[in-house]
Design goal:
This protein is α/β, with parallel strands linked by helices. It has six helices and 15 strands. It has helices at about 30, 55-60, 180-185, 195-200, 200-205, 210-214; strands at about 25, 35-40, 45, 70, 75-80, 85, 120-125, 130, 135, 140, 145-150, 155, 155-160, 160-165, 170-175. About 25% of the residues are buried.
Length: about 210
């Protein structure tokens, strides 16, 4: 049976019973127009109060001129209040003061002694679920299939298919054993055409690895 599915270029993919689009859920790829955010198809974000600027809502410190970038994979799911605190939010803290004198004095900021060096990109893998109110800190690298608990504050590297929560976050458990994780990364169902994904929906959502391998 052929199933219909929202077009990944459709900004509002969820329809209400009266046929109008749900304004609080968007596919991010068509919703964003930001030179430093790169996002895959079908990744969505939700907000109880839809923002006018989804980029500013999700990554408020990532500016058009920021040296770092935010990379997000396909089929990710971001709950209300999720924020990516990217490296441009950082202050220099290796000296006696963390005060950013350069931003208040006018003129060129690059190279000023009160400005930190450029920070790393933040990278989110495919099929990552980030719960309500979570904060992803500068340079975090979150693997595929990760689940981030509500309110978590995440930094560093999170392995594929881990469940993390807390502040600071820690790995609570792995979703699957190492062999299954390796198989899922090799299968990479998120790169399949959407019709093939829908045809294997039961296997993907029901953890039927044998069916996916077949």
């Amino acid at each position: 049976m052929t199933r219909s599915f929202a077009d990944p270029t459709q900004m509002h993919p969820v329809m209400l019973p009266d046929g109008t689009p749900h304004p609080g859920t968007v596919f991010l790829k068509p919703a964003l127009s930001h030179p430093r955010i790169f996002v895959g198809d079908y990744t969505y974000a939700s907000a109880h109060v839809p923002p006018a600027d989804w980029a500013g809502h999700l990554a408020p410190y990532l500016y058009d001129f920021s040296p770092e970038a935010l990379h997000i994979g396909k089929f990710c799911q971001f709950a209300d209040g999720v924020q990516f605190i990217t490296a441009s939010a950082n202050h220099r803290y290796d000296g006696f003061s963390s005060f950013p004198f350069a931003i208040f004095g006018g003129g060129e900021m690059a190279g000023r002694p009160s400005m930190p060096d450029a920070g790393p990109d933040t990278v989110i893998g495919h099929d990552v679920w980030i719960g309500q109110g979570a904060r992803i800190l500068p340079g975090a690298r979150i693997g595929c299939g990760v689940i981030v608990g509500a309110g978590a504050v995440v930094s560093g590297q999170v392995p594929d298919y881990a469940i993390v929560s807390g502040n600071p976050s820690r790995v609570m458990r792995m979703r699957f054993d190492a062999d299954t994780v390796a198989a899922l990364l090799d299968i990479a169902w998120w790169d399949w055409p959407i019709d093939r994904i829908l045809a294997h929906e039961a296997a993907i959502c029901g953890a039927d690895l044998a069916a996916l391998r077949g």
